[in-house]
Amino acid sequence: MYLKSIEVQGFKSFVHKTVLEFHNGITGIVGPNGSGKSNVADAVRWVLGEQRAKQLRGSNMQDVIFAGTENRKPLGFASVAITLDNADHQLPIEYEEVTVTRRVYRSGESEYLINGSGCRLKDVYELFYDTGIGKEGYSIIGQGQIDRILSGKPEERRELFDEAAGIVKFKRRKATAQKKLEDEKQNLVRVCDILSELE
Ligand code: ATP
Fold first, then answer.
1. In angstroms, what is the span from residue 127 Cα to ligand 1's centroid?
2. Where, if anywhere, are coiled coils annotated (predicted)?
3. Which atom from ligand 1 is nearest to the alpha carbon of 42?
């Protein structure tokens, strides 16, 4: 699996539709200070479902929408789509090419799509569990992140190893099953109460 392209429109400094294509080997993005290099990494984090504005260097989620310049009006929406080659089926989906899209409008509406079909944020998270690519993955190492990993709490560091070992999806499923069990236990207690009142 590898990243084939990123399409951005209305996201941060990318006012026009811009497509970045990646090929085999190493790709470097170069440009003067403030020209938008880090915005490319932010776009990838965002499309993978990042919900924390601070992680995207903003104060609220609408900050990702092109805010306008002296000569250009602000835009009403931001859209990012990443396309991954999935010929090796590392992503648990039948398609050989997977495009994940996220859009947000100033009105606050937002949508996620996988290969053009609307989906939930949860579906995007699940698609990338244990691949190292998801929003908590280690495929994007930001400035200062190595320090944070080394000086972080053991539990936080453990999360990285869990992701690399491929057990995150099982842990999530276990947590969901445990929650369901707990809910059912509460229901049983309620049923027992009602039964004893009826007796
Ligand atoms: P450096 O080399 O200094 O780290 P960089 O090339 O990584 O810089 P970025 O941090 O990606 O640059 O881009 C910063 C630019 O993006 C700034 O000019 C900022 O005004 C612009 N920008 C960020 N958010 C928005 C937005 N919502 N609308 C318009 N422009 C934005």
1. 29
2. 167-199
3. 11
The DSSP secondary structure of 144-178, one letter per residue, reads THHHHHHHS-HHHHHHHHHHHHT-HHHHHHHHHHH
Interface confidence (ipTM) of the complex: 0.95
pLDDT tens profile 8-60: 999 999 999 999 999 888 899 999 999 999 999 999 999 999 988 888 888 88
Q: What single letter denotes the amino acid at residue 121?
A: L
Q: Is the overall model pTM greater than 0.80, yes or no?
A: yes
77-85 vs 110-114, strand pairing mode: unpaired
- Ligand 1: nearest atom to the Cα of 36: 11
**What residues does 114 pair with on adjacent strands?**
100, 117
Distance (Å) from CA 171 to ligand 1 centroid: 37
Q: What is the pLDDT of residue 149?
A: 82
Which of 12, 54, 70, 104 is the pocket-test mutation for ligand 1 (most atoms within 8 Å of CB)? Answer: 12
Please state whether 192 falls in left (phi above 0), alpha (psi between -120 and 50) or beta: alpha
Encoded tokens for 65: 């929408």
Distance CA 49, CA 110 (A): 11
Model pLDDT for residues 142-172, shown as the tens digit of each residue: 777 788 788 889 988 888 888 888 888 899 8
Pocket test for ligand 1, best of 35, 56, 80 (most atoms within 8 A of CB): 35
